[in-house]
Amino acid sequence: FISQSYIFPFKKPFAKAVLVELEKGYLEAHRGLW
């Protein structure tokens, strides 16, 4: 179950860009561990 209040912000371009940056940082951090 995911509430609308949680889904709604991620439909915004800005929030989407933030998620992309977080994903990049996550991948970079894990790539550095290998």
TrEMBL record:
The source's superkingdom equals Bacteria
What name has this protein been given in UniProt?
Answer: Uncharacterized protein
